[in-house]
Amino acid sequence: MQQAKSQILSLNALKEQLSQQLNEKINIILEKEKREQELLKEMKIKEEKLITVEEELNKAQKEIESLNRNVDNLQKENLSLKEEKKSLSEEINRLNAERDSLLSRFNSLTELKKAITQLKRKIYLEKIQTRKSSDNNLEGNRGYIIKNGLSTLRGRIKIEIFPAQ
Question: 61: domain range?
């Protein structure tokens, strides 16, 4: 009996020990499940953040592409403006050289007289040219119709009106 009591006591002690281990294991499992739930919640939150970050990234990439296109257009415009500036600078230099030559030419009286006569001659030639072009437009039979060398228009009729007396 004593042996049975000692076995019962040892079994009770073993039972106590096993129940403690079981409770510890259950607590560990519950803590792990709780931690797993927390991790799942965090993972969902992180996934939502990831989705929003990806959307922002897509928006930013589209904006970058748009800005790159604008930069390309502005660079092309800049190049054309540089070319225009260069041509205008060349034109200014040419005009300055022409002005300088005209100033040096007009500083002497004889050169000034030559320039005036050349200018008058140029104006005269332009007038002659415009007269020739207007005369060329008027050449021809002036609207009369001629058939077989004879005018097809009727002869002239003279109408005289006398005042009443």
Answer: 2-133
